[in-house]
Amino acid sequence: MTFKTTLTRLPALLLLAGLYFSTSTRSMAQEPVRLDDEIKKMVNEISAKKLEEDVRKMVSFGTRHTLSTTTSKKEGIGAAREWVKSEFEKYAQASGGRMAVEMDRFIIKADGRRVPQDVEMANVMAVLKGTDPTDDRVFIVSGHLDSRVSDVMDAKSKAPGANDDASGVAIVMEMARVMASRKFPATIIFVAVQGEEQGLYGSTHLAERAKKENWNLVAMLNNDIVGNSFSTETGLHDNTRVRVFSEGTPANETEEQARLRRTLGSDNDSPSRNLARYMEMAGEKYVDQIDVVLEYRADRFLRGGDHTPFNRLGFTAVRMSEMNEDFNHQHQDLRTENGTQYGDLVEFMDFEYLRKNTGVNLATMASLAWAPYAPEKVGVITSNLTNKTDLKWEAPAKGQKPAGYYILMRKTSSPTWEQKFYVTDTKATLPYSKDNYFFGVQSVDKESHASLPVLPLPVR
Question: Is the peptide bond before 435 cis (omega within 30 degrees of 0)?
Fold first, then answer.
């Protein structure tokens, strides 16, 4: 299938007086935070009760191990896949024919490690087609359907996988339910992938498909282990923070790109890192009592997830994961030892926390899918030695015409954007030195939906 359709909390900083402008008739101002009523409405429609129901249903299949049965209608990965597909089909009825559901099947050959014999896997996808035929952008949100116990090759034992990763799949399903009736110019794919525990097979298949079919994939959000707010080891119980991981140096960076990155000192400004910053901004803007914590590494220490294959192929992708993992209830056989219950069970989850994390994903996806294309040929002019910064760019060639642009700015020592200025021109001169600040430029529509920021490159 080829698709033809398609901030971070901002500190309350006041714009300093005396800004320079490209033309005397243009103005630049720090814009107040504006909420989109429709995004807020969607976030409010997310149901903790429905999330719990979905997780409990996935747990009811006994095990969703990738190598478990595909013939039973009540147990195993096959039954779980069919159920997710049937739920997507229910949601699609509200889309007016714009949401198509498919079971994307593929064969994985025996690998001598975690796949002992050839096996058919499948990703369950709900594709909400964009309404603008000239908009070819694609956005993906995912969770993995398969589960496991202590032995990753044990396909027979009960493996409830409530938090790892029925929680991520529940996010995807709830987003599809809420968003199906809304119209976006770009295409959104909601997907439950398979084979994560055996080697990221489902996400690898999807990333390779996106590359082969030349999808204009703008952003991929991976949700894995996102529904627990308690840490057994530390005793922390915190449902106000969630982590987003992002790569710093793009995995497919060329030597020429590496030289430019070293010259600019832009090690903290990969597209994926700026997607993470966007997720923080959008999430905290629309979801109450949540702090999106940016983790400046590709994933947890020496670990990986379903965003990894997308990063490897050059796509912009991040991972959301709970703030405090509970390892007594992750990758464990069901058992009780010395009075302690082990195993990934529903009773150890926090569904209000999962509701908030769903809201962060939805606010991010809706904001991006409604935004204009990103600006093109964004540059910082280097012709003259100056303590000002001259920026210029071109309007996007496709899609809706932006109402204006945001210029983001932060000190070189700051991990997140600190100021945001609004302009209507495609150039601007700021009285801040490019030696001391990083900048990004976003396209924005009249409702303040903003594209991902583009880092300016040197031009003369």
Answer: no
CATH, range 29-34+373-459: 2.60.40.10
| Cβ atoms 126, 88 nearer than 8 A | yes
How many residues would you count in the chain? Answer: 460
pTM of this structure: 0.92
Eight-state DSSP code of residue 15? P
Per-residue pLDDT reduced to its tens digit, 167-185: 999 999 999 999 999 999 9
The string of pLDDT tens digits covering residues 218-275 is 999 999 999 999 988 888 888 999 999 999 999 999 999 999 999 999 999 999 999 9
Q: Please state which CATH number belongs to domain 38-370.
A: 3.40.630.10
Smallest CA-to-CA distance from 267 within 296, 244, 309 is with 296
Q: Do domains 29-34+373-459 and 38-370 have the same CATH topology?
A: no
Nearest to 168, CA basis, from 207, 201, 141: 141
Give me the residue spans of the domains in the chain: 29-34+373-459, 38-370
In angstroms, the CA 317 to CA 296 distance is: 13
